[in-house]
Amino acid sequence: MSNSTPMEIAFQEAEAAASRGEVPVGAVVVDPTSGAVLGRAGNRTEELADPTAHAEVLAIRQACAALGEPRLPGLDLYVTLEPCALCAAAISFARLRRVYFGAYDPKGGAVDHGPRFYSQPTCHHAPEVYGGFDETRAGALLRDFFRDRR
Q1: pLDDT, tens digit, for every residue of 61-80?
Q2: Catalytic residue list contains 22
Q3: Spacing of C-alpha 64 from chain mean position
Q4: 96 by DSSP, 3-state: which?
């Protein structure tokens, strides 16, 4: 495995998604103790014709399969964009420890925007959340993708 940081790996996944014509979002599930990458993915909603094939969901599925467990306590998720409501719920159900994300998403985000999923009384598990990691790069990747598609 390379010496890339988890967020760099998430960006690699986002760039690969863009090259497939997918919205460029990448996600990585990491064991913070060992540094092991247990799941990594970019969006595949178009390719798989699956509205739930978001990067975070796919990376969580990989990590659960790798461990043979339905929950991922103690593990961290790195993602290039603020998670939407679907992904925020998946993160909560997976019991991830921390979420680090790149760009804020005022329109579709559900962590610091919109429903603020983890602040709701019905949310049973709220991870620690840290936003704005390499936000300029993450935002540019998305802006360029949508500009080129117009």
Answers
A1: 999 999 999 999 999 999 99
A2: no
A3: 15
A4: coil
